[in-house]
Write a structure and sequence with these properties.
Strand content: 35-45%
Distance between the termini: 45 Å
Helix content: 25-40%
Order of helices and strands: EEEEEEH
Number of strands: 6
Strand order of the largest sheet: 1-2-3-4-5-6
Radius of gyration: 14 Å
Length: 107
């Protein structure tokens, strides 16, 4: 069994990062979590998360005051969803942050 646990900063001022945890068995991803976090007004906020927390791969899009939006990927492997989640966060973290900050202002 192998485990990987790391933090990747997405910008130079270290206010945007993703955290990754992954456990493998026999070269298969059995559980994972990759989540984008933004530091806003001195606090870290989780904004989007891909994981297997409920026993299946899914994405949670978080909102400051509303319930999270859950997208389930029942026919995709854990490896595929983990890879796609990392790619999505790297490409789209700016728009995720803008949406979240806009929702914070609307409170």
């Amino acid at each position: 069994m192998g485990e990987k646990n790391l933090v990747v900063f997405l910008d130079n001022n270290a206010a945007n990062r993703y955290r990754l945890f992954c456990r493998t068995e026999k070269n298969r991803v059995v559980t994972f979590r990759v989540q984008y976090e933004a530091q806003i007004d001195g606090e870290w906020h989780t904004i989007v998360r891909y994981d297997t927390a409920h026993g299946f791969p899914h994405r949670d899009l978080l909102h400051p005051k509303l319930p999270e939006e859950k997208n389930i990927y029942p026919y995709r492997s854990n490896t595929d969803v983990l890879t796609d989640g990392q790619r999505d966060i790297k490409r789209n973290w700016r728009s995720y942050r803008e949406r979240y900050e806009s929702e914070l202002k609307d409170e």
